[in-house]
Description:
82% helix, single chain, 49 residues, rod-shaped
Amino acid sequence: MYILASIKDKKAAGVLAGVEPVKAARLSEGLRRYRDIKLNQAKNSKTQN
């Protein structure tokens, strides 16, 4: 914990955590889009019924 706390560079902390920042950002963006699509599908099915 002390090693991660002492590192101020986010990229270095991400690499130590085993996650590359670019990959993490891409994954979170993909999950956000997926959630938005699912929410829109739920809204559309409710309005059609």
